[in-house]
Every structure is written in C-alpha cells, then in structure tokens.
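Appendix B. Raw example, untouched.
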Amino acid sequence: MNVIEFNNVSKKFKKGERFNSLRDSIPNFFRNIVSKNKNKEALDSKEFWAVKDVSFNIKKGDVLGIIGPNGAGKSTILKLLSRIMNPTKGEMKITGRLSALIEVTAGFHNELTGRENTYLNGTILGMTRKEIDSKFDEILEFSGIGEFIDTPVKRYSSGMYSRLGFSVAAHMNPDILLVDEVLSVGDIAFQAKCAQKMRELLDSGTTIILVSHNISLIQSLCKRVILLDKGEILKDGGPEEVIPFYESIIYAQREEELKKQIAHSDYKVKLDEELPVKISNVLIYNGTLEKKDSFSIG
C-alpha cells in the first residue's frame, strides 16, 4: 500500500520573492487570482523551477533518502508534502498522520518557557494535550534540558533550543515522518540519540523521508535513495547504486573546478637556478686517515 504518491509534481518560484508581512502577501494573492488562467508551463523572466516533473511512490514502513547539491529541490519536496506550500502542477496523495522535522524550532516563542513551548509546539504538530501530558517526561529526558525546562527559551543556547524542538516532534509517533537535516542538531552524543530514535520509529512501521548531506547516515538508514539536481530526478535506486553515482559527479565537478582555477591562475611554479649547495671535490680516506683511490673487498 502506498502511503505517499507524488505524481509529476512541479513547483516554480520567482527570484527575490518574499512574503514577510501582510503587505507583501496581499498583492501576491491578487496576482495569483489574475494569473489563474496563465499557462503553468511558462516561466517569466525571473521565475525558475525548484522542482520539475518529479514522481515517486512510497509504501508503508519504507525509508527514502533524498540527496543532492544545495538548491537541488530537496527541501522544497518536503515542504510540498507537509502542505507548507502547494505545487504549481501535479498531484500528491498522503495517507496517514504526518509529522515534519523540517525546522525543529518552528512554532517556538522566545518569551515562553521550555515547558510552555513543548505544549505549544506539540499542539501545532497535531498532538492533543493528553498526548503531550503522557509523553512529557520522555520528551524532557530525551532533550536533556533538565532543570532548565521552566526557563524562557530565549535564554537557551542554540543546541538546547534545537534539542527540545527535535524531542517534541520525534515523540509525536506519526505514520509518516519527514526529516530535513535536523539530525545535525546538538553534540555527537545527541546526534547518536537522534539516529537511534529514527531506527525505533522505523521498527514501529513509520514511513520516513530523510533529506541529508550526511551520506553515511543515508547509507545506514535508507534502502532507497533519490538523487536530485536542479529540481529533477537524476537517479532512483538502492544506496549502493545511487551514492557512488552521486560521488562520481561531485568528484568530476571538483576536478573541473580545480582545472579552471589552475588555468586562470597567475601563479606559476618558479625554479631557482642558483644552486644552494655546490660540491667541488670528493676525497676518500682509509681508517688511518690516508687518502685512497681504491679499496679491496673481502
């Protein structure tokens, strides 16, 4: 049974597009109404495809890794699946309760305490108060926040902030979990706890989509990997097939960049023709300090 169906999905953006306030959003809303009949395949001069004609299906309990360079469209796909944004064209079908670990501290309020933010963030993620009550001690223990749970989060370090955010989202027990680079939060010990929590969710039948630049993590958790570049799928298969293909592309790109740097560099290797050492004569002496030109062996 497919719990995720992603069929010929595309998403385009406009360079420099920002919606930081109601003043920004209202003009865009009316522009969208006016342009509803516009050809969705066409691009304006400032538009580009962040995701283009991407298709994949995922069965219950599977774990899919998505890799690729920065700007490949990985995070855009997760935001489309989590309904943060809508596709320009194409269809998506999601079956089950979905949790997105895209920005682990999204929904936190700086003036509230860690305890208050746990309830706030848990509610935003779709948990009931009863669920949060029953899992609060686990969330607190996992995060390692300890006695600082009743301190306003504006006093937290960035690591504490992220650990609490991950802990809340990871204890939601979703049917589908979307993870975007959040396993890099905290120190090495906490990263190990995060990876272990991911394995526990997998063992419980949770379907996971993992976006990461951590290739070793992708290899250890994923049975299937999709390689994206410039919004399109380059390769889809097992990690033993896709990861070496991706690495070969990266190495080839780095080699080409190095060649260009050398070709355009003004620096040239210079040889110093003046020798630092000059040997003018060699003399050989025996054990009694007599000069000898020949020696017998044996």
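End of appendix B.
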